[in-house]
Design goal:
heterodimer; A: alpha+beta; 11% helix; B: alpha/beta; Rossmann fold; binds iron/sulfur cluster
């Protein structure tokens, strides 16, 4: 993880990890989740859904911290994150 | 990603009429975000959802009542608050949430709003403010900023908009806040607070309407969010007279006011049927 200042307790604090799921057929391609994910997990995919929108794709799955920001900002109930055990990806 | 292949269940699916999703709101329309934040707050607040109703008026935001899997009412234009007031008076046990737009609540239904606030009717009023009449084609509303372009103000809006927090405060609302859809966490927390407290709570949420307002004011959806990001200043406790909503001077957001005072039902019982209120106390 990138910090602008290294916290003293960085070794003790466990950052939560998430797994993000996209429900492609609900997406309307607004790009909010991609633009505002704080960890830059998402990118625009090269696919189109049945309605002709381009849903996001997961670019860096290991970077997701399960903050749920994408889940709330998405106006279309098309993306959500779930908690992973801290060591799930190591 | 294996997961996106199988039919994934969104954590809010149990509060949504999923057979109606995708909803009719345009791509990038902020109503969906306000709605999602409201559902998360409903879920997180721990209130009894079997005793919770959502009431909407007419307009794009008014569609919300049709998507929530709770008892809900899609009422006539501007009349969400009178329907909600009636429900609360008939059954004070209900948690009544009004979810509607700026046109419905403040133009067509403006009088209902000020009087429900004055009486401190125990309602949670969530107003999606997208600065214009979206559904009917982007006409100027009572909230359209001065000089903004709409279909009915092609040379710029010559009028002054209402300041919704100030109007709510002056009318007697006992909780007043303003957020944007970018402030997902504060917004959700604010709605939760409003749901859990007694009295007339008002939350204004700025949301893009890319199809109506955005298109005529050169704001693509992401551009509107960038403006929110750059121009909003969070000032909890700011006096509602100081809550500006001006692209140049800044957009003040925050929880501006909260003060408990007796609700409409409490005052009525105390004054008009004292024996009843003693029995139930
Ligand atoms: S949960 Fe947070 S970190 Fe994970 S993808 Fe969504 S916005 Fe990004
Ligand atoms: S925020 Fe939702 S609708 Fe918009 S691109 Fe992301 S998943 Fe699609
Ligand atoms: S017209 Fe505007 S408010 Fe209505 S759904 Fe479209 S973007 Fe949203």
């Amino acid at each position: 993880m990138k910090y602008w200042r290294i916290p003293f307790d960085v070794d003790e604090i466990q950052t939560s990890r998430g797994s993000v799921t996209i429900i492609e057929e609900r997406c309307k391609g607004c790009g909010y989740c991609i633009a505002y994910c704080p960890r830059d997990v998402l990118e625009l995919s090269d696919r189109y859904n049945a309605k002709g929108y381009r849903p996001p794709a997961v670019k860096k799955p290991e970077a997701c911290v399960n903050c749920h920001y994408c889940e709330i900002i998405c106006p279309d109930f098309a993306i959500f994150s779930e908690e992973l055990p801290p060591d799930a990806m190591e | 990603m294996e997961k996106s292949k199988k039919k994934a269940a969104h954590p809010l699916d149990n509060l949504l009429r999923t057979d109606r999703i995708p909803h009719i709101w345009c791509a990038g329309c902020g109503i969906g975000t306000v709605f999602s934040s409201s559902l998360i707050a409903l879920q997180g607040s721990g209130i009894d959802l079997k005793k919770t109703v959502m009431v909407s008026g007419i307009g794009c935001s008014g569609r919300a009542a049709g998507y929530v899997k709770l008892d809900s009412y899609h009422t006539t234009h501007g009349r969400a608050i009178p329907f909600a007031t009636g429900m609360k008076l008939a059954n004070p046990e209900l948690n009544v949430v009004v979810f509607s737009g700026d046109g419905d609540l403040f133009a067509i239904g403006g009088n209902h709003f000020i009087h429900a606030a004055r009486r401190n009717v125990d309602l949670t009023v969530i107003c999606v403010n997208n600065l214009n009449y979206g559904m009917t084609g982007g006409q100027a509303a009572a909230t359209t900023p001065s000089m903004a372009k709409t279909t009915t103000t092609p040379m710029g809006n010559p009028e002054q908009p209402f300041s919704l927090p100030l109007l709510a405060f002056a009318s007697g609302a006992s909780y007043v806040a303003r957020w944007t859809i970018l402030h997902t966490r504060d917004l959700t927390k604010s709605i939760e607070e409003a749901l859990l407290r007694k009295g007339f709570s008002f939350i204004e949420v700025l949301a893009p309407c890319p199809t109506g307002y955005g298109r005529r004011n050169r704001e693509a959806p992401l551009e509107t969010l960038r403006l929110y990001q750059e121009r909003t200043i969070t000032r909890n406790g700011a006096h509602p007279t100081e809550a500006t909503l001006d692209i140049n001077k800044g957009i003040t957001v925050g929880k501006f006011f909260e003060q408990d005072r007796p609700t409409c039902v409490e005052m009525y019982d105390r004054t008009c049927r004292p024996s009843f209120s003693q029995e139930s106390a």
